[in-house]
Amino acid sequence: MNSYSPKHIAALIERVGRLLSTEAHAEGLLPVQWETLRYLHKANRFSRTAAAVTAYLGLTKGTVSQTLNALESRGLVAKRIDPKDRRSKRLSLSAKGKRLLRKDPLGVTVTAVNALEHSAQQALDESLGALLASRLTGQGRQPFGQCRDCQYFADQHDDGGPHYCQLLQEKLASKDAEAICYEQLPK
Amino acid sequence: MNSYSPKHIAALIERVGRLLSTEAHAEGLLPVQWETLRYLHKANRFSRTAAAVTAYLGLTKGTVSQTLNALESRGLVAKRIDPKDRRSKRLSLSAKGKRLLRKDPLGVTVTAVNALEHSAQQALDESLGALLASRLTGQGRQPFGQCRDCQYFADQHDDGGPHYCQLLQEKLASKDAEAICYEQLPK
DNA sequence: TCATATGGTATCGACTCAATACCATAAAGG
DNA sequence: CCTTTATGGTATTGAGTCGATACCATATGA
User: Fold this and answer.
1) Starting from the edge strand earliest in sequence, which strands make up the sheet with B170-172, in order?
2) Which end of chain A has the least Cβ crowding within 10 Å, N or C?
3) Short-list B123, B119, B129, B179, CA closest to B149
4) How many C-beta neighbours within 10 Å does residue B128 have?
5) Rounded CA gap, A176 and A65, in Å?
6) If residue A11 lies in a helix (H) or strand (E), which one and from where to where?
């Protein structure tokens, strides 16, 4: 059988990706804009900056700056200067932005994935994850893993209370532990 | 564990796709141009037309026409009017185009896929294939399967000789049977 | 023969994206 | 301190994608 080969799989990934991105024109937003909204939704508070979005999407600063301007002028994203580092601007999703995210065109893919067998889902998750990791480390880029899986992540108390980031020296809520982080360094 | 979910998987596919496409700027060609070259390389002779490329990539005619012009002016692709239907132009890869394809930036993905376990490769192939098929049929688009898996595919002789397409009423070489086809209708 | 469908091209506008240059703030070293 | 250097972000420009529309040539069918 010729159809099953690494070459074929690689082409498949690219083709599925392209197909999804053409479907991702919805609600007047473009694919990159949706991805930016999604990122801001699941990133922790330290990671909602233009620089982090840049690293996450693999684009250049200028492009991301434009995208964020577009989202800001639609009232989906708000910028606020970081009081601790006045060069930096903290990004946040507005209520409108969160509401819009419920119409995420990625939803059709989600239902398609749901239709797969459970074992197939797990295999997809692991294989694509490994693929992503190998490409990222091959370029010295951040993995953007979950906060809880980070070297700097620590439980502050033994009683199951809030957590702590040893890098940024800040308290973390339980919710923060689930979020993805720009600074994350896998254990 | 929160990281394993259809939503997460869908986002993963999109992100890997984007990452690959940013890597696909190589040799002065753009991602779409590479995909077009790849398509022309593996499509059978009936399927090397602008219309088929359009359907395969999910773009509009105009965009594909521009892309093909770019490839033609670089001497990578040749056009020839189809004598049987003088509206249509048959496309073919030039020797230069085939040579360039050896530097395909998708190669890095191929090696990454190769590094996965065999069972993971198989799972990827099947899951992504199913995903692609569900998205395509959901939009009434062609599956572009292999010629050999088509309803119109027939063995002309019992002695293992060349094959035959019952739709286009043309002989097929063994090589053709492996190629993907615009008209393919899965059995 | 006339209408309609189909393959392809040309042109325009909105937008992405990389590249470059630039500004403001921060951090490190004398 | 004051300078250098790094970093976060913006602005501008130019190449190119992509969709939309209009258009031309050839086929197909009533």
Assistant:
1) B153-155, B163-165, B170-172
2) N
3) B179
4) 23
5) 25
6) helix A6-23
- Percentages of chain A per state (helix, strand, coil), in multiples of 5: 55, 15, 35
Residue A142, phi then psi, degrees to nearest 5: -70, 145
Digit-coded pLDDT (tens) for B10-47: 888 888 888 888 888 888 888 899 999 999 999 999 99
Residue A5's CB is within 10 A of a number of other CB atoms, namely: 15
CB atoms within 10 A of CB A144: 20
Structural domains of chain B, ranges and CATH numbers in brackets: 6-141 (1.10.10.10), 145-187 (2.20.70)
Distance (Å, rounded) from C-alpha A149 to C-alpha B34? Answer: 37
At A163, give phi and psi (nearest 5°). -100, -175
> What pLDDT, on the 0 to 100 scale, is given for residue B160?
63
Mean pLDDT of A146-168: 83
CB B18 within 8 Å of CB A13: no
- Angstrom distances, CA of residue B124 to CA of A123, A128, B115, B132, B181: 7, 8, 13, 12, 23
Residues whose CB is less than 8 angstroms from the CB of residue B53 and which lie 6 or more positions away in sequence, other chains included: B36, B39, B40, B64, B67, B68, B91
Residues of B within 8 A of A127 (CB-CB) are: 116, 120-121, 123-124
**First vs last C-alpha separation in chain A:** 40
The mean predicted confidence, pLDDT, of chain A is: 88
**Residue B165, helix vs strand vs coil:** strand
Could you tell me where the beta strands, DSSP code E, fall in chain A?
77-81, 89-93, 153-155, 163-165, 170-172
- State whether B122 and A4 contact (CB < 8 Å): yes
Q: Which of residues 10-69 of A touch strand D (CB under 7 A)?
A: 22, 25, 49-52, 54, 61-62, 65-66, 68-69
Q: Which of A50, A137, A133 is nearest to A91 (CA)?
A: A50
The residue to which tokens 């001497």 are assigned: B75
